[in-house]
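A favour, since you know our structure tokens better than I do. Go ahead and set the record down below.
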Amino acid sequence: MPVPPDESLLTRRRTVELSALITRGLGWLSTIAYLMQVTTAGPVPAPLERSLIAGIVAMAAANLLAFAGWRRPGGRWYSALSAGQVALDSVVVAGLVTISEAYTGQVTWPIMAVPVVVAAIRHRLAGALLVWAFTSASFGLVVSLALGSSQPRDAIFGALINLLIALVTGTQSTAFARQLDTLNQVRRELQHQARHDNLTGLPNRAHLAERAAHCSGRRLAVLLLDLNGFKQVNDTYGHAAGDELLHQVALRLSAIIGSGDLVGRLGGDEFVVLLPDAGPERAAQVADRIREVIRRPVQIGDGRAVTVGVSVGQAVRPVDGTADLDTLTAEADVAMYREKHARRAA
């Protein structure tokens, strides 16, 4: 399953799109002003006028894609929107160079570096090289058709300069992206460790409290579990066997709870199950299911199997109740010890 973008990546994407909106908007206004200037100065060659109008439309379309990317930087279509902008920018710049060479005689091929840099920022080295290949081929075609004053040496020089730019900006962008991915991975791991039990991987007390807080104003059932016979396993087979037992119990609990429920470990051999929107009846059913799966033999290595039981206490908060997780856990704790003492008395 793909990892959703974190806030730092979303912020970077919004910044890139905002920059694109501003810079491309300035280019769009400049192109409109240039078109108005040449049309008022006298007759304009039809290919030049059509090319300028096409460039204006293409830049407007690219800014629509940038606005969509700015609005939804974490959307599933963001990469496609970004690639669309790079393609439109490359076509516009290549067209501008062609127009300048054919009708004005101005040297504009250096601006071919702009879409290369933008592609490097958006799509790393691969994107930069792809845009470099397109713009260089376009300029080479212009020179080969003798549409302007540029010579083959200009095409070769421009291609080499832009290749250097593509390699430098592309590798730097790729390195930065990898560093960012590494930092985000470390951050996610630290966040996971802060909210999960190291031994079992189950949510810890902080995670459970967070989930319970999200159920404020709703019915909530809490089950508190304490393993019977865990100390004997630890004393007889060692702590490694006890850890394996806890791990297997965690797997069994995770397998039987519903998709909206949550099981966590408080510490030692105590576990907690949160059942949002559950009443006493469903809580009792889940407790019975837990007793059933826990009493099955557990393999702890070297062909050895142990059997433990579990005492379960439950507490239910009604709709609009005010009891927090600590209060419900305390109530479940009392019920759990009643069950444990009743079992011993029997």
About this structure: The first helix runs from residue 7 to 41. The radius of gyration is 33 Å.
